[in-house]
């Protein structure tokens, strides 16, 4: 009797050992069917008779190779819409459908249904409407890129979670994001890149934008921002690129502490309504390589000492941003 029990235990152990190997052979059936139901019109080599984890643009979880975690299809010539079937891929961490010809609006529960999402890139498509809000956007979300679409309306504050490091919603100007940025943006304390240019943002730049101490690139050009530069902006001490061109910004620059921006390489203040003297603190920006400040009401001559910094537009032997 003991020998029989030992044999049974041995068989059971072998069976349990083999189960993960069997699971490794095929992706989740529901994920498989949801992927096939996506209404993308493109020459994707997806076959219903094969494991979806082997399909082009699909990556499954590395442990059991069952659930789809990445839908990565940039520049695949996709057309059609982003259907609600995407929201059923609940283990997705990366969603990249950029540089295609996708149309229509996004599912209302896109972010709410993807609690593990880290990257969403839908840039360079033909998507319309408002970006959907989220009652529980992923706390893992790091990158949002919605640039070069036809989105409109305000940016939902519910999607602005502290984990975001790259936030790009530029060039939706045909049917633009509008309204003010909102104070929610200044809570993104891990933000490295903020690109909001070529929209219809208005009102003042948030006064507490200096809270974004990790910010390296701030591109707000070609909008309708008004008011003076926020006094907190010099707190963004690792900022390397600042573009505020083509807005309705006002006020004097002389009191602005450019000297704290020691990593600033490019600065564009052109086509605004700044007045007064060019700030002397600009001379302290030792990393500055290009600047544009034309089409304002700035006065004064640059100090001869500025030549050694190789930055200013009226020094023809040095590089500068174009004036148009």
Automatic annotation (TrEMBL):
Q: Which InterPro entries match?
A: Leu-rich_rpt, Leu-rich_rpt_typical-subtyp, LRR_dom_sf, LRR_N_plant-typ
Per the record, GO CC terms?
Answer: plasma membrane
Q: Which residues form the Leucine-rich repeat-containing N-terminal plant-type domain?
A: 40-61
Q: Where is the signal peptide?
A: 1-23
Q: What Pfam family is a match, any one?
A: LRR_1
| Cellular compartment(s) | Cell membrane
Q: How does it sit in the membrane?
A: Single-pass type I membrane protein
Its keywords, alphabetically, are:
Cell membrane, Glycoprotein, Leucine-rich repeat, Membrane, Receptor, Repeat, Signal, Transmembrane, Transmembrane helix
Family per record: Belongs to the RLP family.
Question: Could you identify this protein by its name?
Answer: Leucine-rich repeat-containing N-terminal plant-type domain-containing protein
């Amino acid at each position: 009797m003991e020998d029989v029990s030992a044999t049974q235990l041995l068989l059971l152990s072998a069976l349990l050992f083999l189960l993960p190997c069997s699971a490794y052979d095929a992706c989740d059936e529901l994920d498989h069917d949801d992927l096939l139901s996506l209404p993308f019109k493109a020459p994707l080599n997806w076959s219903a008779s094969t494991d979806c984890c082997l399909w082009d643009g699909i990556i499954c979880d590395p442990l059991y190779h069952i659930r789809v975690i990445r839908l990565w299809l940039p520049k695949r010539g996709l057309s059609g819409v982003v259907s609600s079937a995407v929201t059923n891929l609940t283990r997705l961490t990366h969603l990249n459908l950029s540089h295609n010809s996708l149309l229509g609006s996004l599912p209302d529960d896109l972010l709410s249904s993807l609690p593990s999402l880290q990257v969403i890139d839908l840039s360079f498509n033909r998507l319309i409407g408002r970006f959907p809000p989220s009652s529980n956007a992923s706390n893992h979300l790091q990158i949002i890129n919605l640039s070069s679409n036809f989105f409109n309306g305000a940016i939902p504050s519910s999607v602005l979670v502290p984990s975001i490091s790259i936030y790009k919603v530029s060039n939706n100007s045909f049917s633009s994001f509008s309204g003010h940025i909102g104070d929610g943006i200044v809570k993104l304390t891990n933000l490295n890149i903020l690109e909001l240019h070529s929209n219809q943002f208005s009102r003042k730049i948030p006064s507490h934008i200096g809270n974004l101490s990790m910010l390296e690139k701030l591109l707000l050009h070609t909008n309708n921002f008004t008011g003076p530069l926020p006094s907190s902006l010099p707190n963004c001490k690792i900022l390397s690129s600042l573009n505020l061109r083509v807005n309705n910004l006002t006020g004097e620059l002389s009191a602005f502490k450019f000297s704290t921006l020691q990593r600033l390489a490019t600065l564009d203040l052109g086509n605004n309504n700044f007045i007064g003297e060019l700030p002397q603190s600009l001379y302290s920006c030792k990393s500055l390589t290009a600047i544009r400040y034309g089409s304002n009401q700035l006065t004064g001559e640059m100090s001869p000492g500025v030549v050694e910094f190789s930055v200013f537009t009226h020094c023809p032997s040095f590089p500068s941003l174009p004036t148009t």
